[in-house]
Write a structure and sequence with these properties.
heterodimer, A: mainly alpha, Serine Threonine Protein Phosphatase 5, Tetratricopeptide repeat, 3 domains, 18 helices, 0% strand, elongated, B: alpha+beta, 4 domains, 6-stranded antiparallel sheet, 4-stranded antiparallel sheet, 23 helices, 10 strands, 11% strand
Amino acid sequence: MTALWVTVAAMTGAAIFVVLASLARHRAAGGPAEAADAAVYRDQLDEISRDQARGLIDEREAEGARTEVARRLIGASDREEAAAGPATRADRRRRLAAAAALVGVPLIALGGYGALGRPEMPDLPLAARLNANPERQRVVDLVSRVEAALANNPDDARGWTVVAPIYLRLGRAEDAADAYANIIRIEGSSPDREADLGEALYAAADGVVTAEARAAFERSVKSDKPSIKGALYLSRAAEQDGDPAAALGHLRPLFEKAAPDAPYLSALKGELERLADVPPLPMPTVTSSDERKTPEERMAMVRAMVDGLGDRLAGQGGDIGEWLRLVKARAALGDNDKAKATLAAAREKFAGDDRATARLEALGLGLGLEGRGA
Amino acid sequence: MIAETGHYALVLALALAILQSTLPLWGARSRDAALMGLASPLAVAQFLLVAISFAALTHAYVTSDFSLVNVVENSHSAKPLIYKISGVWGNHEGSLLLWILILVLFGALVAVFGRNLPARLKADVLAVQAMISTAFLLFVLITSNPFARVNPAPLEGQDLNPLLQDPGLAIHPPLLYLGYVGFSMAFSFAVAALIEGKVDAAWARWVRPWTLMAWCFLTLGIAMGSYWAYYELGWGGFWFWDPVENASLMPWLSGTALLHSAVVMEKREALKIWTILLALLTFALSLLGTFLVRSGVLTSVHAFAVDPARGVAILMILTVFVGGSLTLYALRAPVLRQGGIFAPVSREGALVLNNIFLTAACAAVFIGTLYPLALEAATGEKISVGAPFFNATFGPIMLPVLLIMPFAPLLAWKRGDALRAAQGVTVALGVAIVATAMVAGFVRGGPTLAPVGVGLALFAIVGAFAEIAERTKIFRIGLGDSVRRARGLPTSTWGGAFSHAGLGVTLLGVVAASAWSSEAVVALRPGETVKLAGFELTFEKIEQRPGANYRSAVAELTVREGGAVVATVEPGRRFYLARKMDLSESSIVTFGVSQLYASMAEARTDGATGLRLQYKPLVVLIWLGAVVMAFGGALSLADRRLRVGAPRKAARRAPVMQPAE
């Protein structure tokens, strides 16, 4: 970064020097404009003579042309004499020009660059980045070797199986999708393969479940051993369609069937909680007097706030977001019974609203307030 | 650091451009040599800075620095090196940077080689050039910055559009831009002349080399683009009347007119005001061309709405430069005194006719190109103006140009003798009539008017040398004397003849390739044979070939003529992995100036391979003609009188009466 600023300073300095040096070199005087014009006319006279010598024009024409050019030449010479005016106020002009160079150039250049440039960012040539990360270099080498092999033998399912997850990690989601499609082409469909394909398509579409991806996920949950990943993504698709009830419909059976120590259970709970879409808790404003409070006192303060919200909702009612927030807050404080009661009250209150009901149920499942183990 | 250095250099260049567009202009008004003298060093410094910037961007492309958004969007680490380099200008931002580089290069050339220019004219010209570069630098920096960074940098780029992954990209845009931007010199000279209120023969003499050079490059650039489209797009057309092509044709037409009217002005001081107007319009059309192509207006009017900042900036630059220069023209043109008068039948008269028809042709192209855009913008209705419109308007307008072309050089300045000129072209006319009759009699098929087209083309080619025949008195005096006379002719005479002949050559190619090409669209299996224009093509096999960043399938066909193998064609299709694009890669074999053109259709399900095979007689002449035209231009450029101002040398030469060399 220092090197950059040195270069910047050097370039700016050189630019200013160009202006100042040029100003110093010149004496303020009238330009040779008219003299040069006259020279061109003399050149033309010369050409007329040449044309005549070659027999391209006859003498009469040449004479006429000469007269005309001579007339112009005299005009130019007259102007040349008239042009040499006095050079007044030249010093002031030059000082202004020098000021423009000294102040204006750095102002525009540094100001402009300051607004547009990213001086803190180094060059990031690919080769250097790969060298700096030998692990990555090995991966890239591996991928290119497998790719070369696959180009000759595109029916090698093992090759595709090796590169597919790497593609996904390297951010080449479309290639990953291609690879999974090839695996399915060669080895036939299976729930996991379809789910992987769907996931790659999902990543390639920047986190949108496209029709193509959805079709893959649907194939992945069709068989008697449905893919969990597929179901999770189908729920996400329903969620993107703005249909939390349908999304919940995909997750509920998974949740119910899962073994208590199933490795994906926590992921599932997280997904459910996300689906509930609880608005973030408002941060209580911390005043200077609060800072001196003990943790217990603060806890009591939070409890008071939550209870306050509970009373308000019970009394005046509130929107679904506030109810969700209350349930979550109470569960977080460890008041599982109160949380359950709140949830039940909320479910009763929003009984007619499918979306709200689905969100409440998702939250209940995600927090473990309802369903298994509740 | 290199990328950021390039970025800073670009901003610094803007700062210098602002100084250069103001201080010398002020100096010229107050007759201050010190301020006027700033123009040259500033122009050179500005060029160096933009060159640093361009080099920095190229470096980022070559090293696949994906922390630059522009590199991510248009490059890929697996791309061959040549396309990494040419990819620098294969996109909006980079091509604008190339545009600016050429613009400031010309400014620097004027600064370095224009020592003999009158100081005030030079200061004004460089100031106007700097105004153009200021506008473009601002445009690039604010709306289309090639140095925009992205953090964290992606590991791989999105690759260059496969259509552009071709050697054509390395040559075509730079040539075209040298042409477009070269006309900016004519523009700057014209604006400078309007500011000074003085235009004369000397002015024309300084402008003409720049216009001529720009014209040569534009001619080659258009031809190159046409040939590229011909072999890349896979169906063998050479001119599509596509708006992007029209955008380059318009400045070529008005530039051609400018070139001719500048001759009148230089020789006779006539047509001053008209020449200035043409200089302004030619550059305006170049700007329009650049923007039409680069802004995405052409693919859809709505592209303006996609990036409003870019669209508005484009409109502002166009408005300021076109509107500003035309306003200046309206205010100052009456100040310019008109020069020599001439009779209708004279060299001047013929050149005026040339100008009228060329500008009319240009207007026809302009309407055909922009009317659909305007209509869509105004009413939302989409219409397509295609070849029929241009054939019905452009063709008939260009016809008189071709007919007058051989006569004009034979007419004397001021007052010409039509009869003598007509006698001069009798040979050409005879050749044309005989050729028309022979073609009509012996060549089968093709449209009825095609033989006439051949005759017209030959009339233009042979007629182009009528002036030289006349002036060397060939066949009327001894051959030795004629050769001596031919050597004595100014190179610009030869240049004019070659340029005119080149147009005829192109016309001949267009007529023959349009009228008598034959085509076979077939689906073949290995071992099958198809006949086309006297050739037998046998489909041998189809094979997969991997490429650096694509997979390809290539078909191999053996071409036999009368049983003997004369060539092999290998059309194929490439699938570009990063962009997921499937492209045809045509295969062309040249026989003399005719070509056999093979391209592969998209994959079929029945195992056969779809092929499009074409035989195009004389098609190479289309581009060869353009090369001949540009060669003529280069000859003209080499003419001593056209060297940028030569007062010192001339002064030394003046006392000696020069014999014909």
